[in-house]
Amino acid sequence: MTYLPTQSGPFQFPHPIARPILFRVAAASATLPFMGELRELIRAERLDLIELLATLTPAQWATPSLCGGWTVQDVAAHLAWAPVAPMTQTMTHLVKAGFRINKASAELTRSLARRGTDEILAQLRDNARTGALPAGVPVAAGLVEALVHAIDIRRPLGLPASISAEAFRSAAGTSLGVRWPLTLVVGGNARKRIAGVRLVAEGYDWSYGDGPEVSASGEAVLRLLNGREVERSELTGPGADLLASRL
What we know:
48% of the residues lie in helices and 5% in strands. With 247 residues, the chain is mostly helical. The chain has one domain: Four Helix Bundle (Hemerythrin (Met), subunit A), CATH 1.20.120.
């Protein structure tokens, strides 16, 4: 990574091949914090996830995540080594996979996951200490990755965590700013997905769009914007049926 193997396949967001392509944040998004503040938010999210992972049983590490075909351990390995993986390693796996990005990403991640949970945790702790991010990935995108991959892990385990208002607003705004071709790895264009409705995050001073209102939890909003499954029962308001029909 990095980002986000989606429910339909283990893609990274932005995939390493696309790292030089940077995010542009949608004009309607909230103002992003300063870079130093963003890095502190990333560090806090990383440390929270490390604290959780350190308590998991072998069965929990083996639990399927929200990333299609990836276990909790696979996602954790991806988070651990994507920020420090050399491009040559990525290209080697891509060539071996016949330039099939999905296959190359899955094979690389699973090979890293086989290093074991102790090594995964050690590398995650080092990343939190150094603030490492993949080359070419903006700091704002690093926060999206930290939040959404944590959801990928936590939700199947039934161990949710609260998301700070500052982290949520930054991640939602950045997610709305993803442009093609990076939209291919997050389930399509988030702005098109929610076009024609006003999406409201419950408990946050955040909304986006015009039209009949749809309310959802902050976690559900981030899943929706990043190509993850959202159940119809998680959406309320007069625009809920319209939005659910697109998911």
